[in-house]
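Weekly structure sync, notes
Attendees: PL (lead), two postdocs, one rotation student
Agenda item 3: pending single-chain targets
PL asked that the sequence for the first pending target be pasted directly into the notes so everyone works from the same version. It is reproduced below exactly as submitted, 119 residues in total.
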Amino acid sequence: MLLDEMYSDAIAVQLRARGHDVVAVTERPELRNLGDEELLRLMADEERVIVTENAAHFVPFFTAMLGGCEPCHGLLLTSNESMPRRSDTIGLFVSVFARELEARPHAEALLNQIVWLGP
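Predicted structure, written out during the meeting:
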């Protein structure tokens, strides 16, 4: 799992402490200046699902990749309205993302799928 740049790296740290393979864009300097399409392709190569709030940018690229028969390892979307990003909601994100990782423990479980997450 890769957490897009809008999420605190504290979420990734807590998920790794629970045994999950999670990184945040903010922890990998080489990812910080990549465009969304390039990031989506790179994470497909790494077999990582991307978690983002940026549906407007990622969904069209995801759809185009599928149309070109390129596999995508999944896109998990959140909304700042239902899951506001604040320091006091980090625990909420950890719980929601852990629940998703535990429900789908295999890398291919979200292959070519988009899922909206909520609390």
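Discussion points:
- Helices lie at 9-17, 36-45, 55-67, 90-103.
- The chain is about 40% helix and 10% strand.
Action: rotation student to compare against the earlier draft before next sync.
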